[in-house]
């Protein structure tokens, strides 16, 4: 036993020393890739690109941080799986939203475990949702919208950006809350859903402010309410009532984004990434860009990895009964 121990100990020490050196030099000359599991130009992509610049500055300005779009699968499953299976050296990271909280109950054959196959690096922001309609809708406020829904049962189309997308989850909850069945129209992304809404091919959409603010400001859609507890301060959205104010009591949905690394990423590398993330979350330019989109940058303890993980676990528990009741699943 002693001989085996002596043979193994130097190897273990060498491995530990190598890991320490890697962490000290991180990120080195190799670029860090932020994988976005959706197409370019969407809400999560915009968050990731703004964050990449803020984190680059936070890491001294010498780090190279690029965004890679790996779209596909329900809720961005393909991109998330790519990161789960990536080399755990800190150079391949995931920026993802609320889908991380619904994957376990929504996807039957999930190729990874949300709670154990990732290192949690911290939350990024909270993004309110807005309930919007095509410009031709006769309803001019939420009360009129509900009356219109009641008068048009079986004829209303509710768009979303695909299964497990933020708009799908919000729409599913809202449809249940109002008690009116609508025809759900899934698209392959937010952009085509918004295009058809503005063109009048579909009636309604519940989507993130990061994707709807400019269309609301340009009066390309009709806006009815926000899904937050309080009104937003963003100029283009400040006059929108909350759903609670409008009469839909106790309805609140906030989409959030977090950053993840593959399981097994060295602890020292995780700390460097979390330190950079926390600095980036206070970057004035990043804050300004997020505020302009109606997003609220995380300023509480959820920027800590342990609290981030605890929050996602709570979201998994929250969404499981909702999805089960809706009977919506993906393979």
From TrEMBL:
Keyword Signal: yes
Gene3D superfamilies according to UniProt: Bordetella uptake gene, domain 1, Periplasmic binding protein-like II
Leader peptide range in chain numbering: 1-23
Keywords: Receptor, Signal
Pfam family for this entry, one: TctC
Family, as annotated: Belongs to the UPF0065 (bug) family.
Name listed for the protein in its UniProt record: Candidate extracytoplasmic binding receptor
Species annotation: Ramlibacter tataouinensis (strain ATCC BAA-407 / DSM 14655 / LMG 21543 / TTB310)
Native organism taxonomy: Bacteria, Pseudomonadati, Pseudomonadota, Betaproteobacteria, Burkholderiales
């Amino acid at each position: 036993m002693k001989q085996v121990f002596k043979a193994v100990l130097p190897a273990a020490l060498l491995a530990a020393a190598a890991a320490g050196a890697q962490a000290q030099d991180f990120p080195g000359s190799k670029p860090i890739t932020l994988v976005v599991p959706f197409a370019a130009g969407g809400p999560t992509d915009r968050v990731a690109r703004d964050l990449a610049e803020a984190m680059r500055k936070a890491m001294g300005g010498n780090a190279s941080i690029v965004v890679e779009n790996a779209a596909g699968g329900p809720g961005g499953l393909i991109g998330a799986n790519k990161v789960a299976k990536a080399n755990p050296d800190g150079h391949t990271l995931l920026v993802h939203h609320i889908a991380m909280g619904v994957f376990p109950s929504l996807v039957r054959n999930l190729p990874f475990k949300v709670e154990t196959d990732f290192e949690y690096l911290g939350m990024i922001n909270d993004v309110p949702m807005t309930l919007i309609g095509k410009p031709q809708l006769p309803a001019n406020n939420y009360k009129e919208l509900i009356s219109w829904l009641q008068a048009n049962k079986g004829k209303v189309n509710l768009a979303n950006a695909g299964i497990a997308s933020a708009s799908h989850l919000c729409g599913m909850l809202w449809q249940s809350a109002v008690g009116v069945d609508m025809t759900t129209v899934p698209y392959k992304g937010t952009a085509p859903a918004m295009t058809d809404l503005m063109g009048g091919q579909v009636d309604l959409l519940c989507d993130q402010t990061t994707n709807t603010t400019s269309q609301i400001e340009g009066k390309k859609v009709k806006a009815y309410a926000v899904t937050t507890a309080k009104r937003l301060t963003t100029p283009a959205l400040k006059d929108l009532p909350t759903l609670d104010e409008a009469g839909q009591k106790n309805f609140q949905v906030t989409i959030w984004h977090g950053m993840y690394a593959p399981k097994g990423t060295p602890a020292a590398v995780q700390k460097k990434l979390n330190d950079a993330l926390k600095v980036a979350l206070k970057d004035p330019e990043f804050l300004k860009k997020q505020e302009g989109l109606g997003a609220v940058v995380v300023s509480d303890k959820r920027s800590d990895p342990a609290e981030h993980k605890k929050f996602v676990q709570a979201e998994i528990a929250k969404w499981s009964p909702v999805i089960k009741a809706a009977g919506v699943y993906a393979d």
